[in-house]
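Aim 2 progress update. The chain analyzed this quarter is reproduced below.
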Amino acid sequence: MIDIFGVPLLALLGQMLLGLVNGSFYALLSLGLAVIFGLLNVINFAHGAFYMMGAFAAWGLLTWTGIGYFGALLLVPPLIGLLGLVVDRLLLKRIAHLDPLYGLLLTFGLALVLEGGFRYQFGVSGESYEVPESLQGALDVGFMVIPKYRLWVIVVSTLVCLSTWLIIEKTRLGSYLRAATENPTLTQAFGINVPLMISLTYGFGVALAGLAGVMAAPIFQVAPLMGSNLIIVVFAVVVIGGMGSILGSVVTGLGLGLVEGLTKVYWPEASSTVVFVLMALVLVLRPAGLFGRSA
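Predicted structure tokens:
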């Protein structure tokens, strides 16, 4: 048995796999935050609540209508994104001209209201959600056994993150979005519906949180506080990667998941704080973040 600094290789690889699964959720959630902040300059503290609602929506579809996991993957993100559009139209539009701090306070209050409502309805213990039958079991790759569902989460999250980055950075639609946020008056003069694009951007960022919630349901307990337990770490990921940096959120989310997994092996006591220590170091050495642009 090969040991690396006193830890068996198989145990180390298994812990890195778990870290990469967590990193996939960090990447997907921080991507939604980065899209919303980078294009709309809104610090969306309700992101964790939308993630929680995505998980509950998947559970509700299965429990009340019999629609399974793959159906939820198709239905839940647009539904949560539509809710995001309503929030943008009814609430965020009214404070769009104010300091971004007002957006943070508004979405923080919205998160408390949503979580409180779900706690009143479902309690704090949460609900269980089975892994879909086609993704149960594990793959034996010779040197380790990999659970199929966790491998699915890593692959899907990575593909969604990279696809989003390509759309925003490399397509005409992405250029329209960036132009609409940097100079909305000039962009509107070219016949582009800027308010609609901004609302759709917020809805898309929220839909990513809903997608992450669906994929998290079979792994974590579907509970009202599952978003609040994760959102602080996700904000740290966004800060380290660079506020508003799409690529930074993806790379940093996956990377910090691996770092967290390795820390659990070599220094378990520090695994819950290593992300915040790294955030403090990055803020001291590079305040704009690893992939952010300095002012």
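Strands lie at 3-4, 7-8, 138-140, 145-147. The radius of gyration is 19 Å. These observations will guide the mutagenesis experiments scheduled for the next reporting period.
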